[in-house]
């Protein structure tokens, strides 16, 4: 499973890159607003070291304006994926952008049928928001399983990008469910490396070894 970082803070993405977890990046209007920076400046910095897709989300909600925005974002780098909302105008824009060869990511997906419509219209990626579903008492990971089954039934090539991930358990569950990609909040990416038994095991190995040097360093 590929892992993206869900952040508009470039230093957070760089830190996750050191852990080998940056196969791409996702951003959204809320994440960008939290930085107080210009969207373009953030993306310019990210394109310097991120080779995989960087999702840039449109603000417009009508077809013509979405296209205008999307075509501009597409010029911001060779690896831009334009993020469009799962709406009627979003699907029209998706059809046009797919025909133009633009990479796309359909956001705010909460049902199998929405994922099916996005795939039929040629989406590169579809983003089911699993954490927000869980927040409402539904089964976010179950949605990933269901979309996987439907896409496999009909050989859709759209990638399932598990979004709105809240914790490391979500990550392992969406990996088991067959998500192609999980986009991780930076704190979740960090936590994936941790286990208290790793820390206590290392501490006891080093205690037992004492203050002798490593034979390799003598
Ligand atoms: C992903 O593309 C979304 O921007 C993100 O995962 C949403 O997460 P949230 O529900 O924690 O805001």
UniProtKB/TrEMBL annotation:
* Compartments where found: Cytoplasm
* Taxonomy of the source species: Archaea, Methanobacteriati, Methanobacteriota, Stenosarchaea group, Halobacteria
One Gene Ontology term of the molecular function aspect: transaldolase activity
State the protein's name.
Probable transaldolase
Q: Which NCBIfam families match?
A: fsa_talC_mipB (TIGR00875)
* Pathway where it operates: Carbohydrate degradation; pentose phosphate pathway; D-glyceraldehyde 3-phosphate and beta-D-fructose 6-phosphate from D-ribose 5-phosphate and D-xylulose 5-phosphate (non-oxidative stage): step 2/3
Which gene name does the record give? tal
Q: Which InterPro entries match?
A: Aldolase_TIM (IPR013785), TAL/FSA (IPR001585), Transaldolase_3B/F6P_aldolase (IPR004731), Transaldolase_AS (IPR018225), TSA/FSA_arc/bac (IPR033919)
Which CDD domains does the record match to this protein? Transaldolase_FSA
The EC number of this protein is 2.2.1.2
């Amino acid at each position: 499973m590929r892992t993206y970082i869900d952040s508009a803070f470039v230093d957070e993405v760089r830190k996750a890159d050191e852990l080998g977890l940056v196969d791409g990046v996702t951003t959204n209007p809320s994440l960008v607003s939290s930085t107080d920076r210009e969207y373009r400046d953030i993306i310019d910095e990210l394109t310097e070291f991120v080779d995989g897709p960087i999702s840039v989300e449109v603000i417009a909600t009508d077809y013509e304006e979405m296209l205008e925005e999307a075509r501009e974002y597409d010029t911001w780098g060779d690896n831009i994926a334009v993020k469009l909302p799962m709406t009627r105008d979003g699907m029209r824009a998706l059809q046009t952008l797919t025909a133009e060869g633009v990479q796309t990511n359909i956001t705010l997906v909460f049902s199998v049928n929405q994922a099916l419509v996005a795939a039929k219209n040629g989406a590169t990626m579809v983003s089911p928001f699993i954490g927000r579903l869980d927040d409402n008492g539904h089964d976010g990971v179950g949605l990933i399983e269901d979309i996987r089954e439907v896409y496999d039934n009909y050989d859709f090539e759209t990638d399932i990008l598990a979004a709105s991930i809240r914790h490391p358990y979500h990550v392992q569950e969406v990996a088991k469910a067959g998500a192609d990609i999980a986009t991780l909040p930076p704190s979740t990416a960090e936590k994936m490396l941790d286990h208290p038994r790793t820390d206590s095991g290392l501490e006891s190995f080093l205690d037992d070894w004492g203050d002798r040097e490593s034979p390799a360093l003598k």
